[in-house]
Amino acid sequence: MTILLKRLQVVVIVIKEMKDKKIENVFLIIIGTISFYYYYSTLVTTYLYYIILLLIAVLITLVVTNDKSTLKRFTLLMRMLKLFLILYFVLFSFLLIRKDNLKLEIFKTSLNGYYTGRIDGVLFRFKDFNFKRNVNLTGYTQDDLREKYDLKLELTPLTSNIYFIENLSLVEKNDVLGNN
Questions:
Q1: Which residue among 2, 18, 27, 39 is the one 20 to 30 A from 86 at the CA level?
Q2: At residue 127, what are phi and psi to the nearest 5 degrees?
Q3: Chain segment 29-54, per-residue pLDDT in tens
Q4: Beta sheet of 105-115, edge-to-edge order
């Protein structure tokens, strides 16, 4: 009877841990989806933010982990990546909350290329960084798209190197201010 009771206790503990993992995974999927949106809604013109977030995640993971010898490398790596994802989410959430108090800026840049298929998009260079973002290209003749049009970027600067994309549109090259 006691063996059966001990086995039942083990099963209850395993089920509880599975429920906790399930909630954690749903939480990470939600944060990951929002972070994915943040990534495609911003232009980051430096790698410094990513490096700092990664270093913080590595340091916190190493400090919090008590018994490094028993942990597998994969588990340690997964903890660091989860923490990096959470830090990324927190940083960009904070920056986007204060976005409404900032002024919109308009930039104009040339097209480096474009792609069509299920989703249309453009390739461009902004502040010495290459970007690829989705833009609706229906209604444009694609034969001379790069020669006739520039890309108008309507951005809100969140920091000196992070910009939130309000709008991306194509404008004719002879349109100096990018007004349609």
A1: 18
A2: 50, 50
A3: 889 899 999 999 999 998 898 999 99
A4: 42-44, 162-172, 149-157, 105-115, 121-126, 129-134
Q: How many CB atoms neighbour CB 36 within 10 A?
A: 10
* Residue type for position 13: I
pLDDT of residue 52: 92
Two structure tokens written together for 159: 């920091």
Beta-sheet strands, E only, within 28-159:
42-44, 105-115, 121-126, 129-134, 149-157
pTM over 0.70: yes
Q: Which amino acid, 70?
A: T
Q: What are phi and psi of 124, to 5 degrees?
A: -150, 165
Q: What is the pLDDT of residue 84?
A: 92
For residues 164 and 154, what is the distance between their CA atoms, to the nearest angstrom? 9
Q: How far is the C-alpha of 23 from the C-alpha of 51, rounded, in Å?
A: 29
Residue 100 is which amino acid? D
